[in-house]
């Protein structure tokens, strides 16, 4: 509570009443509208614009000076404070009061020198607050201030974000479509269906006089004309669109003078991703009603509705496939000219590859969802008792469409998938809490829930013609699965406070909680849990505290699960274009719970002036973590993994660093953890859970969570790379551990600078260590599209470090690309589309200026009116410093935490520029 600094001066009369004068201020600035009253009387006044006031007093009076948001001040008038040289108190007449009295023909005197009014007025007479005076039938006057009238307020919010792709792959700019044949490097046109860009230098080619559907500017041929125009080249990175996202929100609130209110909110969002022809929009509305009821109760209801639609949801890996098709296209082939030939088939540089515009224009990965929810809450609080009753209902419907259309390269046959998921839930809960005294309470909670989830999936395949696509199929497979769950969750918890123990001025807060829950879908139906903690305050130092806690929880799996992470595990990397999202995971009727037992030590030290240190150490064991388990072209969701984890989190925080009009806050957070898999289901050696069948993230006993496993080079007993008779390293047929994606530590640094109405926020993050798999780079190497292959393809007489198959030191020199050999035998293409995964492992360390936000807050305020506006300008992903030039550890493959550390033609990372404007009135 702020304190009022009072600078007082007065003058006295020779009479019993004295006109006392003073000033109300804070930090030397006068405060208008402060209320000054003689305690226990109706004699009141208010301070003027400069904080000055005057009021008649007598010896022994006590002045009560108050202002909203500030601590009330009491001043006693003593003999020593009274001085001579004052004026006689004159009657104070309000012009507004006089007008009212004349209107009612009232002959009663307005006031007496004593300050008492002869008509009955309320105590809260404040000339700035009173906005209405009426005379009642009994002759008394009724005054209303601005707080006794209903209020109507509005808020308008507008946000706009413009984003551009960053950290894109680097491509070679010199070599055309083709390969080596008969000792020469030859150009091979689109009609040959050549996929490689291992052809000749583009400077040796020219456009012919004719034109074709593939090359409207003329077919490409070997240069025969001196001075002929060079080929037009295309940068694949120009394919991506800058994105624009906007949000408009409007809120209106009607509030009664008793504090009840009705609030209505409307919001609309619109945007796109970096892929052409993408669009998403979302509309939402909510209606909230709050009412105070008799008996210290409050009622709150909330009704919300949300409608979302996305025409490019990546429900069937569509985004990754588009990025792939764009990246592998030869530098002289313009995909944008057209995506369809006259015969209706796809126009691409090879029938074995896709045109990214064709994929985006014929995209089938769509998502629509609608959600309706209602919540009712009644809170009752009186004396030491608190009770809250809550009832909620939610209904949602999610429609997903996905598939692969006619003429799409890499698919066996066109297909279409229509997936509809409906979800309903209803819950009723009650929370009762009784407080005995400070930090001594007992609380009980009971929550009854019912969930129902219905899944309908219709798969279409085997089309007689293009006209029959997508729903008039010869083969149609349907399945309909319905699941429900009924739960009763019961909890009892309490807190007990001990003062002066075990040492003088020490405090101990003991807390305990016990759960015993029922679920219709859990084995044995009962789910236990508990928490116990002890917090020692003022330990050794009044600002030092230590908290020790032990928590045990059990949780059951969600009813259903569908994502890209485990669906992609069905396919090898070279089958990427065939990927389909067609597998579902279902919780069994007799599910085993996932349990977690953790011990935490929290140390808090508050230094001074807002400086604080927080240290947390934890150790936890998790049993029966659910993971996808493949068997005979199907996948089960099974409690398969046990693991343990320990870690430290350190936070150094400073709040409220003031210097005149300047304020600075910061938060430095350091996180370090280590985990280890302790057991797998059925004693399996390893369990993949995300990625592809030949390069994936895994659970491996005795190893950290999520290790990257894939192929590497064959090595002898001394870990020397084994070289084949051609002079190139041999790829090992057995998978091996390639890297740990978990960082060594993570640091976050958050800063706030505030000067008057301006606020600047800076956010940094630093992730040290860990590994990532850059499969994008490896595949670009295979196709001959990467900058690396452009720079190194002419390398000759290179000797790989290693030993021959007979154990001797390798001495055979090789050329990375020898035109006398088939193209499949060059340095990069010989190992296949994914290369050797070991070569794609990169350091995941990065330092990033995550965001910069500058805002300005201003407004206009009067007793009966208030207008406030805030404008913000911000940039996200300002810059990134990383050892990997294109892949980024936080840019997960399918936008899922499970695939973090895997990069295979991921959606581009974006740098965003935005603005936000909020107006309240």
Describe the structure.
- With 921 residues, this protein is mainly β.
- It has a domain at 5-148.
- It is 5% helix and 50% strand.
- The protein contains 6 helices and 49 strands.
- The protein has a 22-stranded antiparallel beta barrel. Strands 1, 2, 3 and 6 form a 4-stranded antiparallel beta sheet that branches. It has a 4-stranded antiparallel beta sheet with strand order 5-4-7-8, with no helix packed on it.
- The model is unreliable at 1-16, 83-95 and 104-128 (pLDDT under 50).
Number of strands: 49
Major sheet: size, sense and barrel closure? 22 strands, antiparallel, barrel
Work out the helix count: 6
Quaternary structure state of the chains depicted: single chain
In whole angstroms, the N-to-C terminal distance is: 27 Å
| β-sheet strand percentage | over 45%
| Backbone shape | elongated
- How confident overall, as mean pLDDT? 87
- What is the SS-derived class? mainly beta
Helix content: under 10%
Radius of gyration: 37 Å
Q: In terms of per-residue confidence, which ranges show pLDDT below 50 for 5 or more consecutive residues? A: 1-16, 83-95, 104-128
Pfam families: CarbopepD_reg_2
Organism: Flavobacterium artemisiae
Protein name: Carboxypeptidase-like protein
InterPro entries: CarboxyPept-like_regulatory (IPR008969)
Topology diagram in text:
Elements: E1 5-8, E2 18-26, E3 29-30, E4 35-38, E5 44-46, E6 52-57, E7 62-66, E8 73-76, H1 95-103, E9 130-135, E10 141-145, E11 151-166, E12 178-181, E13 184-187, E14 205-207, E15 220-222, E16 243-255, E17 261-271, E18 280-293, E19 297-310, H2 318-328, H3 356-361, E20 366-382, E21 385-404, E22 415-437, E23 440-461, E24 475-499, E25 507-519, E26 526-537, E27 544-555, E28 560-561, H4 564-567, E29 585-586, E30 594-606, E31 611-631, E32 634-659, E33 662-680, E34 686-691, E35 696-700, E36 707-710, E37 722-723, E38 736-739, E39 745-755, E40 758-768, E41 771-774, H5 775-783, H6 787-792, E42 798-799, E43 803-804, E44 813-814, E45 841-843, E46 846-861, E47 866-882, E48 902-903, E49 909-920
Parallel strand pairs: 37-43, 41-48
Antiparallel strand pairs: 1-2, 2-3, 2-6, 4-5, 4-7, 7-8, 9-10, 11-16, 11-49, 12-13, 14-15, 16-17, 17-18, 18-19, 19-20, 20-21, 21-22, 22-23, 23-24, 24-25, 25-26, 26-27, 27-30, 28-29, 30-31, 31-32, 32-33, 33-39, 34-35, 35-36, 36-38, 39-40, 40-46, 41-45, 42-44, 46-47, 47-49
